[in-house]
Amino acid sequence: MERHVLGLSGGRDSAALAVYMREHRSEIDIEYFFTDTGKELPEVYEYLDTLEGFLGKPIVRLNPDRDFDFWLRQFNNFLPSPRTRWCTRQLKIRPFEQWVAPMLKRGDTVYSYVAIRADEEYRAGFASKHERLIVQLPLKDAGVDKAGVMEILDSAGVGLPAYYEWRTRSGCTFCFFQQKIEWVRLLERHPEFFYEARRYEKTAIEDGSPFSWSEGESLEDLARPERTREIRRDHEKRVARMQARAQVNPLRPDSEPIDIDDLYGHAKACIACHK
After folding, report:
1. What are phi and psi of 227, to 5 degrees?
2. Residue 217 covered by a domain
3. Last-in-domain residue among 132, 165, 198
4. Is 47:233 a contact under the CB 8 Å cutoff?
């Protein structure tokens, strides 16, 4: 038996892939899934509801059997970081592997559709470790780039997730890949999540964790009014310089010309979380 699965992160690329497959490969019965860490933005859940309405079928929620707090204790309160991404492994990849394991055990062939665009390099970390788990890259194969993703979502009437007004990633509220301006905006938009992240960080530092959520400074320091003003000024200067050189994207409500990560010159993301 063949199974076809497509993971949604709450981000634009995976959403565009789901729309693309519905419009161009409607003969395939795709099972859509979302791996819920329990630490997602409310805008992510709202966007998933929008996608369910468009797709006309439910998005299966994969919940890890042990939540972030459990794994944080297992790692002695050491925060995850770009160098030790235990959160991705335990809260995203592990639940997916557990979900497809019975399919593979029965002898099914599972096709997994991943939202890598034509303007991105395929990352070997997404290569399958099982001969009957076959990774497919429809957007890349069709030559769909970032602009193409925007066009797909706009044409379908799905649009972008609401959090794109202030942040360019899905994933956990306290994702360590956030730029400092995104932390400032999290403080403004969802202060309860910012203060939760600060509590995690304070406990971790007290227990000897070498990492803070934001590189080079604690959230306590980042939240000081003079520091948030400095971060804002720096961000506004970056945007102004970029706007002088690039056409503004009309899909961005705050008139930022490109993704925040691109603006800062070192785009980073976990594909499992942010695609």
Report:
1. -75, -40
2. yes
3. 165
4. no
